[in-house]
Amino acid sequence: MRYFLVLLFFIGISAISFSQENLVYVKSQTKSELTESKKNGIYIFYFHESITKEKIMTSANYYPDYFSYTINEKENSVKIQLVENTEINRRIITRFLVSVGLQKIEVDKNELLIHEFFESYLK
């Protein structure tokens, strides 16, 4: 019986820890703002509080040939300016978001997986 309770405890802890990982997401602009961003090459993403400035900087610094960025610590947001507004550079944005550890993007209260976001708003 004791073995069963310990096993149940560890399964519960594991389930909680894995479910917390799925909560990490980024909030994007509205659909209309994303349409404008596709034209001008400027995107703004609002990060979950668990994503630190250091993590954002570490990941973004791998892509200076594709975009520049500024971080607004007050809003926990990142403004990305594409060097060239091309589909390849927009795809790099998705690589950056994945490298930060994100799985989902919220657009107008709809959660999208990274590849769905790219297909809908960046391609």
The name CATH uses for the topology is Gyrase A, domain 2
Question: Regions with pLDDT < 50 over 5+ consecutive residues?
Answer: 18-23
Bin the helical content.
Answer: 40-55%
Rounded average pLDDT: 82
Number of strands: 6
How are helices and strands ordered from N to C?
HEHEHEEHEEH
Give a description of the structure.
- It is a single chain.
- With 123 residues, this protein is of the alpha+beta class.
- The chain has helices at 2-21, 31-40, 53-60, 87-100, 114-122; strands at 25-27, 42-47, 67-72, 77-82, 104-107, 110-113.
- It has a single domain (2-122), classed as Gyrase A, domain 2, CATH 3.30.1360.
- The chain contains five helices and six strands.
- It has a six-stranded mixed β-sheet.
- The longest helix has 20 residues, at 2-21.
In short:
The chain is 50% helix and 24% strand.
How are the secondary structure elements laid out?
Elements: H1 2-21, E1 25-27, H2 31-40, E2 42-47, H3 53-60, E3 67-72, E4 77-82, H4 87-100, E5 104-107, E6 110-113, H5 114-122
Parallel strand pairs: 1-5
Antiparallel strand pairs: 1-2, 2-4, 3-4, 5-6
Record keyword descriptors for this entry.
single chain; 123 residues; alpha+beta; six-stranded mixed beta sheet; 5 helices
